[in-house]
Design goal:
The protein is built from 17 helices and 4 strands. The protein is mainly alpha-helical and about 525 residues long. The strands form 2 sheets. Strands 1-2 form a two-stranded antiparallel sheet. It has a two-stranded antiparallel ribbon with strand order 3-4. Strand 3 and strand 4 form a beta hairpin. About 40% of the residues are buried.
Length: about 525
Amino acid sequence: MSANRNHNTNRAPYPQRGQGRLASDNMPEDPPEYGEDGLHMLNNEHSQEHLADEVVVGASDADGKTKGSKKLESPSLTDDGEPAAKGNKQQSAYMDIAQQIIEADQRNREDRVWRRRHTTNPVLRALQVIMPYGGILASAFSIASSTIGGGIIGLPAAFQMSGMGMAIIYLIVVVIMAIYSFVLLAIVSHKTGLYNWEIIARRLMGRGWDYFVVFVMWVLCFGGDVSYIIALKSILTGFLKNSPTASEYIKSEPGYRLITSMLWIVVILPMCLLKEINSLRIVSTVAILFVVFFTITCIIHSSQSLHARGMRDDLVSFQTGNTAINGLSSLMFAFIAQVNAPEISREMYKFSVHRVFLSALLGMSLCAILYFLTGLFGYLDFGPEVSDSILAMYNPLKNHLMAVSYVGMMLKICVGFALHLIPCRDCVYYMIGTEVSHVPWWKNAILCSLQAAAALVAGLFIPRITTVFGLLGGFCGGFVGFIFPSLFMMYSGGFSTARIGWGHFLGTYALLLTGVVAVVWGTSAAIHGAVLSSW
C-alpha cells in the first residue's frame, strides 16, 4: 500500500453502501475488517471482499468502486446534468481509504495505551509511577531486555577473533546501524499504520515477501534456541567437570548431554507446551538482572587475574582474514533486537519517530556497555584461550560469585528457550494459514515439542556456540537488522531526496549495503570457520 499520496486536510468518513457520495457523519470507531489474506477488506455485509486500497461508494459493484490511490473521477456531467466543475468541487469531500484505516487504528492504539497507563490495579499504578507504560524508559528497557541474552557469552570470543581494536569498531558501527534501523522501522509504522513484520512485508512488497520474512524469523528464533542448549550444556559442564563426587561417565561428553537432556525434559519442555506464557516475561526480567550480575563477576574475575599475573602479552588489537569477519557476525547476533521494534512502536505512549529514537538510543547504549565490558574483560582474562563460550572458562565451584551467576544464566536460558519457541510456533501457524487460538492444545503441544526436541538435538551435537552465532548473525542479523528495514523504507512511498532529505536517503542505502555485505561475507566466513574447526 503506497504511502506517498496527497491527502486532503478536510477528511471525510468511511463510505456508505447504497450512496453515490460519502456521508458527512463522523468516521465510525471501528475500521473496516480485513479478509484472511490481509490484503482484502470486507464490505458492510461481510459477504464480498475488495482490495484494501479500493472503496465502495455506490450500490452497484461496477460503478461503486474507485481506486484509493486516485481521487474519484467526475464525469463531464453529473446525474442532474450539472457541469463537471461542480463534480470537481465535491472531490474535496473524499479521502483516501488507506488514511482512514491508519487514523482509525491510531485512535484504537492510543486508547489502548491510555487504558494501560490509567489502570485501576493498585500494584500496576505503583509501577506506573516508577516506569510508566509506553514511556521512553519502559520502551528502552524492553529493547534492552530483548537484546541481552545468550549472545553475551560469545562476546569474549568475538573480541579474540577480531582483536580488541577491531571488535570495538565493529561494536560501535553495529550499535549505530541498529539504532538507525529502529528509526526506519518507526518511520514505516508511522506512514503505514502497520506494526507487524509479516503484514508490513506483504502490504509494501507484495505476496511472497511475508513468507520470506517468516522464514528468516523462524531461522533466527530456532537458532537462538539451539544456542541456548549449547550455553546450557556449557554451564552444566562447568559444574560437572569440577565436581569431586561426579562419576567419570558424568564428566564425559555423553554425560554432559544426558544431564542437559534431563534438565530440558524437567524444566524447559513443560514451559514450551503452554499456549501463552506471558507470566514468564516477568521471570525473564529478573533473569536480565542476573546477566548484569554476570558481567560484574566477569569484571571482578578479570581484575583479580590481572592483579595476580599482570597484563597478558598475547593479546591482539587487530585480526585479519575470515576470522575477523566471524567476530562481526557474533556481534551482529548479539544486537538483534529489531524483531520487537514494530510492537514497541505500537505500545509507545505518544508514538513518534523521535521518541522511538530516544528509546533505541538508551536501550542499545545499555546493551553496548554490558557487551563491551564482558567482551573486553573476558578477553583480557583468558586471551586467545577463549575461542567459544566464556562459560566454559570458569570454575563455578571455586568462585561463589560465578556460581550464582551461572545459576542466573541457567534461569535466563531456560526462560529464553521457551520465549524463543513462541515465534517459531507462530511462524509455522502463519505458513499454514492459522493461528494459535484456533489450534487445540494437544496439537499445539505436539508442534512445540517437535521443534523443541529438534533444537535440543542440534544443540547437543553442535559443539561450538560461535558457529551458531556466526551463521545467525551473518544471515538473520543482516536481513532483520539491515536489509528489511531499509527495503521497507524504500517501498513505503515518497523515497526521494525531495521528500525525506539526503540524510535518510543515503542512510537507507548505507544500511542496505551493510546488510548485503553482512549476509554474504558474514555467512560465508561462518561456514568457512565451521568447516576449518570441524564445527
